[in-house]
Amino acid sequence: MGSLVAAATMLRCGSQLGCLHGLLWAPAQTGHRSVAFCIDPSMGLNEEQKRFQKVAFDFAAQEMAPHMAEWDQKELFPVEVMRKAAQLGFGGVYVRTDVGGSGLSRLDSSVVFEALATGCTSTTAYISIHNMCAWMIDNFGNEEQRHKFCPQLCTMEKFASYCLTEPGAGSDAASILTSAKRQGDQYILNGSKAFISGGGESDIYVVMCRTGGSGPKGLSCIVVEKGTPGLSFGKKEKKVGWNSQPTRAVIFEDCAVPVANRIGSEGQGFLIAMKGLNGGRINVASCSLGAAHASVVLARNHLKVRKQFGAPLANNQYLQFQLADMATRLVASRILIRTAAVALQEEREDAVALCSMAKLFATEECFAICNWALQMHGGYGYLKDYAVQQYMRDSRVHQILEGSNEVMRILISRNMLQD
């Protein structure tokens, strides 16, 4: 199997990167604290999955968490750290092994992204998008395309961005206007994409564009490589969170791309986009889960050490009840995400609805958990010296992207109402 399996095997054989199985790194003001048994993220996993999880927790603790605040405040895109992550197999977690991927399941991938997100939610979210792009090429591309693009994506020698949203087409993906008109052995692209994670920094752009008539059946999927004449980028957006990854418009002006870069057949783009997003929704929900898990631990630790009215905050029954609710919602979110991941892996009929439910429920509940954790910190929670505020900021956008939560409700209800 891939390098992630090799890394897990290395750990099993005694090469220790620093034990975080059952532990979670926390910022300097709280130090290391054991994870409460009731929210242990390894519960229900088999031994191999626990090893993958440990590799991810170790990497999050040692390579991501110490730099999380700096990446956020200076808006740094941590290329070298992500390439280190790729050495452990995180560049192509569910890409097939013959092109350099780790070949893991959707459930395994969720476990990995949750663990990484405890170290830096923003960076992990970008890694998850990169993985989604690599999987689209691996799953829908021909053998030549798979072997051309996937190996460098799996090592993160090259980075990928997903280009679906447009200034006038967000939730309504079928109304995409970016055109790709065929001229001989090339497509000429014109149009623009908005809010593209990695825009300007990524090397590979997986673009949904219109090669045919109106509606979803007129869309195709084309890979555009950085440096292609006619490809340009807008200004770097200033965001509330997700600051360790750049966000820009991606602009096409008579951008000529070889027909050989079309993934799948003409008219298959909408299907490819939706299939990718089903997994993307599991991924982003898992990133929310990691942020919430970290926030619960930070809140619990703060309640133990912070004193008011002559006693630790942990003695306050209201805060005890609040912490209990946070833990319960965290575990419920995790169970739903992992259930949806298994359904997606098995290609079950209920997979789309379950992925939508997982994304809807987990992103909303986990953001609420992060927000409550900030409140428990009082004024300290509003300071950037304390990590809890960053988990809250970085997880807020998860309710909007990969299909807004309003769209998730439409997909769920549509599934329920169909005959």
Automatic annotation (TrEMBL):
InterPro entries (alphabetical): Acyl-CoA_DH_CS (IPR006089), Acyl-CoA_Oxase/DH_mid-dom (IPR006091), Acyl-CoA_Oxase/DH_mid-dom_sf (IPR046373), AcylCo_DH-like_C (IPR036250), AcylCo_DH/oxidase_C (IPR009075), AcylCoA_DH/ox_N (IPR013786), AcylCoA_DH/ox_N_sf (IPR037069), AcylCoA_DH/oxidase_NM_dom_sf (IPR009100)
What residues make up the catalytic site?
Answer: 402 (proton acceptor)
Domain Acyl-CoA dehydrogenase/oxidase C-terminal per the UniProt entry, residue ranges: 267-417
Taxonomy-wise, where does this protein's organism fall, top ranks first? Answer: Eukaryota, Metazoa, Chordata, Craniata, Vertebrata
Q: Which cofactor does it need?
A: FAD
- Kindly name one Pfam family recorded for this protein: Acyl-CoA_dh_M
> Which species expresses this protein natively?
Nannospalax galili (Northern Israeli blind subterranean mole rat)
**Annotated pathway, please?**
Amino-acid degradation; L-valine degradation
GO biological processes: branched-chain amino acid catabolic process; lipid metabolic process
- Indicate the segments forming the Acyl-CoA oxidase/dehydrogenase middle domain, all copies: 162-255
Which spans of this chain does the record mark as coiled coil? none
EC nos: 1.3.8.5
Task: Determine if Flavoprotein is one of this entry's keywords.
Answer: yes
Q: What's the protein called, per UniProt? A: Isobutyryl-CoA dehydrogenase, mitochondrial
Q: Report the residue ranges that make up the Acyl-CoA dehydrogenase/oxidase N-terminal domain in this protein.
A: 46-157
In terms of superkingdom, the source organism counts as Eukaryota
The UniProt similarity line reads:
Belongs to the acyl-CoA dehydrogenase family.
Q: What does this protein do?
A: Isobutyryl-CoA dehydrogenase which catalyzes the conversion of 2-methylpropanoyl-CoA to (2E)-2-methylpropenoyl-CoA in the valine catabolic pathway. To a lesser extent, also able to catalyze the oxidation of (2S)-2-methylbutanoyl-CoA.
